[in-house]
Amino acid sequence: MLRVWVLAGLCALTGVRAIGQATCVTFKSSASTIPIVARGKASPILIAADDWPGVQLAAADFASDIQKVTGVKPSLTNFTSSAKPSTPIIVGTLGKSSLISQIVNATQLDVSGIQGKWESFLAREVKNPLPGVASAYVIIGADKRGTIFALYDHSEQFGVSPWYWWADVPTTKHPELFVESSGCSHGSPTVKYRGIFLNDEQPALQSWAMEKFTNGTTSSPLGSPFNHLFYSKLFELMLRMKANYLWPAMWGSAFAVDDTQNQFLADMYGVVMGTSHQEPMIRSTPNEFSLYGKGTWDYVGNTQNIKDYWLDGAKRAKPFESVYTLGMRGFGDLPLSEDTNIKLLQQVVADQADILKSVYGTDIEDIPQIWTLYKEVEGYYDAGMQVPDYVTLLWADDNWGNVRRFPTASERNRTGGAGVYYHVDYVGDPRDYKWITSSQISKIYEQMSIAVDRDATRLWILNVGDLKPYERESEFFIAYGWNATRWNPENINTYVSTWAQREFDLAPSTAQKVSDIVGNLTRFNARRKPELLNATTFSLTNYREAENVLASWTNLQQASTTIYNSLSAEMKPAFFQLVHHPVLASATLANVLVNVGLNNLKASQARLSANSHADTAEKFFEQDYDLEVQYHTLLGGKWNHMMDQTHIGYYYWQQPMTNTMPAVNRVQARKAALAGVMRIVPEGTLGAWPGDNPSQCAQGYNCPPPSISLDQYTPFGNRYIDVGAGGPIPFTFTVSSNASWVQLSATTGSISPKSPEQRIFASVKDWSKLSAGANTATLKFTATAAKQQPLTVNVAFTATKPNIPAGFKGFVEGGGAVSIEAAHATRNTAVSGVSWKEIPEYGRTLSGVTPWPRLGNNDASFAAGAGPTLEYDFFNYNTIGGSGNITVTTFVSPSFNAGEKNRPLAFAVQLDSGAPQTSQFMPNAPPGGLPSGWSGLDGFVANSIVSAVTKFTGVSPGAHTLRISAIEPAVVIQKIIVDTGGLQPSYLGPPESVVLR
Ligand SMILES: *[C@@H]1O[C@H](CO)[C@@H](O)[C@H](O)[C@H]1NC(C)=O
């Protein structure tokens, strides 16, 4: 901890902007620095005319980045032997640049650390590099991108964010700029190909690009706006964040034909092109096939035409660096046909190999090729489909951030290796999510760290939708693939704070606040995607859930607003795009929905306040559009259309064609409720008193008066009773109790249409003075209105004090349940070097715990009860209906088996010294399919949780220990709930129970 703090402090001191990488830039000279810009003069930059054109481009960016920071533009020239500049910056690619060859030969510079190492680089001071030059700062890449990444790495440290254009991140000015003579270096990245996939690009990205990069008409035969002007901007961004691989936009677009410069420019910049999992042989399909293909997309009936079509694709791509997608899917990313079989797909891939042989010559094993095992194709593979060893197997997530399968031990030595296709945006079942950021960096880290451990590191590709607003999550995915050793459970929660320092030039303490905001923003949007929320997602009656959700959003909004207001005008647009807008927009949606829920409920309770919730919901519904407009009008409309995505009012999985206000109810504001002026609604019920209501009791009429109960260790420490207006008639009310131990938050109040609700809290004055067991009181609510008889409602109030032995330490039952965050174990015991480790900021409520290291017991299972164990001491004074039964629900992440195929995820639950019960919470999936329970609006991915239920019998009230032990690796547990008879429905479960220490 201390070390992390010291490092963060150092960064702040030097002002260097970097996320995790070693830094070699400083803004103050010392004995060990070399000037980039000093005393108004910039060191000249030398490059070789025979270096890669992409390196030339990056060097030009490097020179203008220096100017952005210092105001001084360095000269950038091709080296000639007559030049003798003082302390130049010399840039070049090993084995390509004649200048670098000359320096390495003349100085015997040791380049063995990078030679032949994919994308690696070194930079340092070299003495006497050239005749007449005493010293230079030399930046050498092992290959084209090694040099490019070295340049952009320095630029980032100078203060030029990769997102300076794409998110308008300002560059902090410094008069002088230096590098340490020892320089910076980087070895080969963890993941060889690190890419993004522009997808689902209508309505936002496409409409935006049409406005910004065309004059309304395009030369694309498909009318696509994604021309070389657009892609040049994207390539630069990608290289600045050290991505090297792209699946281009493909909705109504075809990269190679939309603009004939696209392929050429990608290669020149240094971006490796591929096509998505459904578009084989570097051709955008179906779009290109519709334009140029002959016959139908049916490999059996139209073999030769399809082969010719693919041959043209390979010939066209041959001059450029590419990764070939193999295989075949049907149009619209659907299975090929009913009778697609393994033999046919094997034939397709064999024919694709022949095509590549005919185009490239005989040796095709060195051509990077991938086969995405997406949906049904994964089933074919598991059923025995043969894939050539040199082909990279691309494993896919379930489109919801859970990787479906990782390479098994026997699959880890294929020459083609393996990779992962992952999503932060999706169109499909159970619902599109493509509006706003809703993926947690902690979760991306958790899943991709398994990929690293399981050697799925040849290629990672992230479906980024429109790219905005997933800037931060996209960069993390790439950064983790660039250097996976940099991030671990101990420091993963510093990624966003260092990111905030880099992007917004913030002090560490403010950056930490931004990190907290982002952590909560993505947590709230990940526990259920905003597209899947409705007015009753969060309980309106139990655990104060909906109102606490709303309060959390309000806090977040205030925290973000405070920082936003403190920023300079220049900084505001970046913060708005990257933090503030997603916070405001998500909070606004929550306000619409919770207010609709309260409106619907309160109308059914004949409460006048229903109407003000309707007004509030409608106000926020309009505010939602205001925020869209604010985003679109930012910076003179630079991002117009980028927030076009609809997101309120889904009728099925697909996006609605416009936003629709959810239905609100109105009560007649001038009419008095039949049951009288006053409505009494205690906490935890849908009912209302007096009068009839279906939720008061089973038959719905002649119901008994309401009752509430409070245990000593109920987390909130009190219960509330809402006193509301049943129409327009003003009244005053009194509350009294017949027991002296009752504490009331108020004993009088007045209600009128202007102030139609008051909440009264009932609690216990002093639990120590209460006798053990149930204590009962009657709370008497009396309303007095002009020209009316007083109206009285009695509420029975029971306060229960459990008899807990002195000295007990642990969680205590409250409200008939014990709720425990998994990370808050009483004891955590390792076995064979494996122990449960917390992944901070992960999941729906606090964090997740998972067996670590990720391979668990060397990739083997533990027997039930024998694995590393989490123990939770708790005390219960009830069992379900007094039967001796309790139910333990463990909230587990909806992820998949990361080991051998026939080993479903599992852990064991044990009570005291009873037998451990094995929980296999994720059912086996059919080949290529998803397990039952996965789909639907109440499925695992919609809820972002799996509830693993274990039952225990013969349990007596008292102190117990719940033991959770690991069986399989990659299980992530978030929260544990013990139902002792009082558990109420809610989305997130009860708040954590009281702990006696
Ligand atoms: C260096 O030479 C190359 C190749 O002729 C040329 O494309 C490039 O523009 C030159 N760079 C500079 C900075 O003059």
UniProtKB/TrEMBL annotation:
InterPro entries: GH115 (IPR031924), GH115_C (IPR041437), GH115_sf (IPR042301), Hex-like_dom2 (IPR029018). Residues 810-992 form the Gylcosyl hydrolase 115 C-terminal domain. GO terms for molecular function: hydrolase activity. Transmembrane segments: none annotated. The keyword Hydrolase applies. Residues 1-18 form the signal peptide. It comes from the Eukaryota. Keywords: Hydrolase, Signal. The keyword ATP-binding does not apply. This is Gylcosyl hydrolase 115 C-terminal domain-containing protein. It comes from Collybia nuda.
